Structures are given as structure tokens and as C-alpha cells.
Amino acid sequence: MDYNSNRKKLPLPEYGRNIQNMVDHVMTIEDRAERNLAAQTIIDIMGNLYPYLRDINDFKHKLWDHLAIMADFKLDIDYPYDPPKPETFQEPPKKVEYASNNIRFRYYGKTLELMVEKAVEFEDGEEKEILITMLANHMKKSYLTWNKDAVDDDKIYKDLEILSKGRIKRDDLDLAETRDILQRNAPRKKQNSNQNRGPKKHVRKS
After folding, report:
1. What is the pLDDT, as a whole number, of residue 198?
2. Model confidence over 41-89: pLDDT tens digits?
3. Number of Cβ atoms within 10 Å of the Cβ of 37
4. Are 124 and 88 within 8 A, CB to CB?
5. Extents of the domains making up the chain
6. Rounded Cα–Cα distance for residues 38 and 21 (Å)
7. Tens digits of per-residue pLDDT, 12-37?
8. Distance between CA atoms of 157 and 132, rounded to whole angstroms?
9. Which of 139, 65, 17, 195 lies closest to 73, judged by CA?
10. How far apart, in Å, are the Cα atoms of 107 and each of 38, 103, 167, 192?
11. Contact of 133 with 174, CB cutoff 8 Å
12. By C-alpha distance, which of 60, 50, 94, 89 is closest to 73?
């Protein structure tokens, strides 16, 4: 039996074994003009495999690059684009820089920390009171998303003071009840399928 595991590994498996066999055959063609024509035919076939990508910029360029990769960069033809070099794929990938934001309480998130800092800048008044109350309620909701049991309001007040660097000290905010938040966060139960059905038809017995 001829198993795929015993065959040569495909450089680009998404094109399949038959396309790879075509590329291998093109490399054996001695006449350059005929080799160019065969390479163009393979590009057309490769494009037909993914017709929905034809409108993407540089789609043809990518196909020619893929052809060079499948030929192990040894196919001598007149490329319409500069073919990639093997060294390009031997370089280690560039290091991805991750955000280095130091989040004090991850269950609240960085955005809420920024909103607390912004709330500190508000002038004292009704607007600031409403904003602080909304932020504290959102903190309680976010906390209960991670801790399903309960949370004391004193914990929210203390965290709010820490996030505001001591500039918001409150213990009298109107916070939602824990049971109400947990009830809103709970997944809704699927309604009984019988509720979606119409009234049963009564069949008259003869």
C-alpha cells in the first residue's frame, strides 16, 4: 500500500498531492518556454482552488510565491514577481510585543481603572455621584462574574479607594443586591418547547 506517511512531505498541504506532483514534473521540463507555460497553467489551477480570494490584493503574487516554495526555490522560470528567497523562511519570527499594562485587579479590567481615574477629575456634584455609583455597581458585577458566591459591599468600597489612589472614599453608595446580580448573570433556561406549540387539537372520538 502507498500511504501518504511514506511519501514526501508536502511544503504546502493545502494545495494537495496532485498540485505538488505537477510542480515536480515542471522542474523536469528542459525547454524554458514550455516550462514557463506549464508554470502558468499550474498558477491558474491553484487560483481555481480558491476563487473567492481572487479579489484580494496581491493574490497572484502569493500564488507565484507558493509555487516557488513548492519547488523548493529551484524552479528556473520567468517569474512575474521577484520570488522569495529561502533565507526569508530561515529567519526566526519577530518577537511580538505584548501590552505591559500593570492591572491591579484583573477581574475589573484596565478600562475600568481608567474610568475611575477619569471620575476623580470630575467636579463634585450630581454628575460625579452618578458616575461613581455606576462604576461601583459595575465593579460588583465584574467581581461576581469571577466569584460566584458573594461579595461584601465593603470590598467594593475598598477596591474603589485603591483604584482611585485614595481620592474616592465612600461607604454609602446604592449598590445592587448580590442576589439580583447573580440572577441576571445566570444563563437563561430554555423555555419548554411546549410553550411554543399551539393549543392541542382535540380529536373527536367516533
Report:
1. 52
2. 999 999 999 888 877 878 999 999 999 999 999 999 999 999 998 888 8
3. 13
4. no
5. 10-89, 110-185
6. 12
7. 999 999 999 999 999 999 999 999 99
8. 11
9. 65
10. 59, 9, 21, 35
11. yes
12. 89
